[in-house]
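In this section we walk through a basic example: taking a raw amino acid sequence and producing a predicted 3D structure, encoded as discrete structure tokens. The instruction is simple. Fold the sequence below.
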Amino acid sequence: MAKELKELTPRSESYTQWYQDLVIKADLAENSAVRGCMVIKPYGYAIWEKMQRQLDDMFKETGHMNAYFPLFIPKSFLSREADHVEGFAKECAVVTHYRLKANPDGDGVVVDPQAKLEEELIVRPTSETIIWNTYKNWIQSHRDLPILCNQWANVVRWEMRTRLFLRTAEFLWQEGHTAHATKDEAEEEARRMLDVYATFAEEYMAMPVVRGVKSANERFAGAVDTYTIEALMQDGKALQSGTSHFLGQNFAKAFNVTFADKDGNRDYVWATSWGVSTRLMGALIMTHSDDNGLVLPPKLAPFQVVIVPIYRNEEQLAQIDEKAQQIIAALRAKGISVKYDNSDNKKPGWKFAEYELKGVPVRLAMGARDLENNTVEVARRDTLTKETLSLDNIENTVADLLDDIQKNIFRKALNYRQEHTITVDTYEEFKEKIEEGGFILAHWDGTPETEERIKAETKATIRCIPLAGDTTPGVCMVTGKPSVQRVLFARAY
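The resulting token sequence is shown next.
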């Protein structure tokens, strides 16, 4: 039974099927009755909640406050900023009527043709337009700036080829939208939030990222510059894991949002927007997990420790229960989240397999002999190793172990990225190496035409122009024209 519970398609056989198996079997999410949409199950949502809580704290530490804006956006708003509407037009879900009525020809309901909206409403694909229409009423002078708002919401982008967490028609995210008096202030904000995302990814998700700026072809629709963090998954593909956009004055001009500066002169407001989504769940799974199931960083695990009693009779269970409660109290006093599974409907072997599959960082198993010896069996999920340890100061032992697991899985992911990041100088070598997966650093002449050619011929895209690293000029691997610096290429999700 335990083997059946854990049976996953090996990554070496089909990485795509392994991912799908794992999301389903680990109780993270499932497909819904609505095509392209997902149900996030309680265990999966518990991970998202921990992400959300930490990010929310980090946003507030940088001066941001949460607000909420409408789900529906008048169609005319999306026409105000040309690049923006072009970027999202093909993904928009449109509401045309506001009422149903009983079907006159039989059972069920039909759309009431008399209830047609005067203006169609777009189900929020992103909120720049509705927010900047609102900011017009909030901003009159420099004293009203900056506005530092974030909202946690759902969005809809009509995707037909979907994959749980990575790409669904509806997904959850946060989107920050800020307004500033100067260009420098807005650019600083965009870079600051990129750093917040990178810090979260590396310190909490244990996922190393490359910080960079997108090429013109890859930037957000309506942005002047898009900053990004890019991560490398275990199959050698890149995953864009967070973006922060310097929007210039584009949306302020589109919605006529101006302010009076200290000298009384009027100017358009400068803007940013930035966001991460439940796609981070996919990143977390694909960065760390293995053929045995999830591997979760302790800082984001729904519970960091599970205690499983091993007993032959009710008397033994009662004794273990008593000891377990003492351990739980000591662990919780250290801020460690614990689950005690003394349910009698599953054998210990099944429980071990289940919690291994679900990626619980530390498992404690306790039997009658452990009670006699004042010991406990400690298993760590990242290395699948176990040892018997004294219960004396177990809370400090486990705290140190969790810290070591967090660092170890980051180190493992970083080593993987370093081993799969190469530098090439010729297009022939590039075309050969891109088939092997991973990040490739290569020179590019900076033109959209060359970028499009590389994408068409190799399916690789420029993930970013790194903000740190080798900035030595060279020549483009494709055209031989001058190149300012190497850029980061990969095939991507």
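Looking at the output, two observations stand out. The mean pLDDT is 96. The radius of gyration is 26 Å. In the next section we compare this with other chains.
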